[in-house]
């Protein structure tokens, strides 16, 4: 098997050379941030798949499945519903044709909404980039049989992600996502039958795994299992509805019609990959339990590729296993690149150009954004390096849940209302963004530290024991997304209804018919 592992660094080397070649096409800020608004339908589909499928699927999803079994489908299910909703507004987003979600927020709610939205987005997306680095460390550790430590691996992953985005921006991201997306989809489809056979067949998992792995709301989901399951569903749904990386891809499409078609195909690819990865994790968990392998839940999919697929597939299985490992590497690179480009776009577009230097020379913006990419990449690396240095427990699942909740409740309600609800006002939008962000920090960061006694988890764990557990600890047993979302959406509705309705001129950019009929 080790000889095939040379294919993975060879593939990364090919991507590097390709990115350097494609970067020669960058002539303007449009090229760097939205690939010159020229992406074809095929490239749109695969770059959307790579935007969403990341280490949250291959690492956090596996970790989730190790606790919850098939119920892990609750988390990606939010994306399935979210993509279906996005289908109906994708063309409008492309018609608006800007660079960041901040452009939409400012058009409806003013500059302060743009600023506060950018801050919340940068916090959430930098967290997402950080756990891509961590996932990269896990992957390199597994495929080298411990030859590369997780700590060294996450540094290598950071170097590749930062380097790729700095070289080519959206041109590098979108064109790299095409081969990466093909590898991700094909490897998952090819690998799952090998994993099922290695685990003893379809029925064997039920014989060796706990019964809770086959429940809709297993007891390990926390004090209130149904609330916890729906919390993961909602966090994913809200992130998907407002995720800026996706909006940037719509801006980069050749036309509104191409953007809408891409979404229709994207949902099929996402459902396939997310469901298959959970199946691989469940059967890898069954194999792990039956054979007393002692695998870390976060590495279930990686170990399935490393051991289970070659075990029953011989040479063909070895190649499929390497392809699945390459897919894991691809998702880390692609997702890290997408979210790093997005957060740097907010710095350059929403904060620097929007608030500090509105008349900045466009010819200098590409060079400046490259500096911001490096800075944001180093900040993301520090977010994972510091807890690593102090030997703190690091869960990709917990990182992803915080990031999803932060963005989902602070930005998405105001953003989605800006595109669909004409009665939303400037004051309501700003109140929603600020209130949602502060509520998330309160319930996810402050309360667990100042009042650990209120933390409750599954199996009766409370206080410090609940916080030390890997899964299910929430203030008073209630997932933070519920009070945070209620505060954000409540402020949006109540403040909007208490303040004067927007004028036709304010609605014109996103609702052209409103100005004509007013």
Largest sheet: 2 strands, antiparallel
Provide the β-strand percentage band.
under 5%
Question: What is the fold named in CATH at topology level?
Answer: Sodium/glucose cotransporter
- One letter per element, helices H and strands E, the order comes to HHHHHHHHHHHHHHHHHHEHEHHH
Q: How far is the N terminus from the C terminus?
A: 68 Å
In the CATH scheme, the class would be Mainly Alpha
What's the architecture, going by CATH?
Up-down Bundle
Q: How do the strands line up in the largest sheet?
A: 1-2
The coarse silhouette is globular
Describe this structure in words.
By secondary structure, the chain is mostly helical. Helices cover 76% and strands 1% of the residues. It contains 22 helices and two strands. A two-stranded antiparallel sheet has the order 1-2. The longest helix is centred in the middle third of the chain and has 57 residues, at 300-356.
Please supply descriptive tags for the structure shown above:
mainly alpha, disordered C terminus, two-stranded antiparallel ribbon, Sodium/glucose cotransporter, 22 helices, single chain, 518 residues, globular
Question: What's the helix and strand layout?
Answer:
Blueprint: H1 7-23, H2 29-34, H3 41-52, H4 55-68, H5 74-86, H6 90-96, H7 101-109, H8 111-143, H9 150-198, H10 204-208, H11 225-242, H12 244-252, H13 256-291, H14 300-356, H15 362-389, H16 396-410, H17 412-420, H18 426-450, E1 455-456, H19 463-468, E2 474-475, H20 481-498, H21 504-507, H22 512-517
Antiparallel strand pairs: 1-2
Helix pairs in contact: 1-9, 3-9, 3-12, 3-13, 3-14, 4-13, 4-14, 4-16, 5-11, 5-13, 6-12, 6-13, 7-8, 7-17, 8-9, 8-14, 8-15, 8-16, 8-18, 9-13, 9-14, 9-15, 11-16, 11-17, 13-14, 14-15, 16-18, 16-20, 17-18, 18-20
């Amino acid at each position: 098997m080790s000889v095939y592992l040379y294919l993975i660094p060879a593939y990364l080397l090919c991507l590097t050379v390709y990115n350097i070649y494609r970067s020669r096409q960058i002539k303007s800020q449009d090229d760097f941030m939205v690939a010159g608004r020229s992406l074809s339908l095929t490239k749109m589909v695969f770059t959307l798949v790579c935007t969403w499928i990341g280490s949250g699927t291959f690492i956090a999803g596996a970790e989730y499945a190790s606790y919850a079994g098939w119920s892990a489908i609750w988390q990606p299910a939010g994306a399935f519903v979210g993509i279906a909703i996005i289908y109906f507004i994708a063309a409008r987003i492309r018609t608006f044709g800007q660079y960041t979600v901040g452009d939409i927020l400012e058009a409806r709610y003013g500059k302060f909404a743009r600023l506060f939205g950018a801050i919340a987005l940068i916090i959430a997306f930098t967290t997402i980039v950080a756990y891509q680095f961590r996932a990269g460390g896990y992957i390199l550790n597994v495929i080298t049989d411990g030859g590369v430590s997780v700590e060294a691996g996450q540094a290598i992953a950071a170097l590749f992600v930062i380097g790729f985005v700095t070289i080519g921006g959206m041109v590098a991201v979108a064109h790299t996502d095409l081969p990466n997306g093909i590898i991700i989809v094909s490897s998952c489809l090819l690998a799952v039958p090998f994993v099922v056979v290695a685990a003893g067949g379809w029925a064997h998992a039920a014989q060796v795994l706990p019964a809770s792995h086959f429940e809709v709301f297993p007891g390990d989901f926390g004090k209130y299992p149904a609330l916890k399951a729906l919390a993961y569903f909602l966090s994913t749904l809200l992130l998907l509805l407002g995720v800026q990386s996706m909006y940037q891809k719509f801006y980069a499409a050749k036309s509104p019609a191409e953007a809408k078609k891409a979404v229709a195909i994207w949902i099929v690819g996402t459902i396939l990959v997310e469901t298959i990865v959970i199946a691989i994790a469940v059967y890898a968990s069954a194999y792990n339990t039956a054979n007393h392998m002692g695998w870390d839940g976060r590495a279930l999919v990686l170990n399935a590729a490393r051991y289970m697929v070659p075990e029953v597939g011989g040479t063909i299985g070895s190649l499929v296993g390497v392809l699945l490992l390459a897919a894991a590497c691809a998702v880390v690179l692609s997702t890290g690149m997408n979210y790093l480009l997005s957060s740097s776009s907010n710095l350059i577009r929403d904060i620097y150009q929007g608030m500090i230097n509105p008349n900045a020379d466009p010819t200098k913006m590409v060079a400046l954004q490259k500096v911001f990419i490096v800075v944001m990449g180093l900040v993301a690396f520090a977010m994972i390096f510091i807890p690593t240095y102090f030997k703190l427990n690091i869960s990709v699942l917990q990182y992803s849940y915080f990031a999803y909740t932060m963005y989902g409740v602070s930005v998405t309600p105001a953003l989605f209302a800006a595109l669909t609800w004409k009665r939303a006002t400037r004051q309501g939008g700003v109140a929603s963004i600020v209130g949602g962000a502060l509520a998330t920090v309160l319930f996810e960061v402050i309360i667990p530290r100042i009042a650990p006694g209120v933390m409750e988890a599954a199996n009766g764990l409370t206080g410090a024991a609940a916080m030390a557990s890997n899964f299910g600890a929430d203030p008073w047993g209630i997932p933070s997304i519920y009070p945070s979302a209620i505060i954000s959406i409540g402020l949006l509705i109540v403040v909007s209804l208490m303040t004067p309705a927007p004028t036709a001129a304010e609605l014109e950019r996103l609702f052209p018919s409103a100005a004509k009929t007013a």
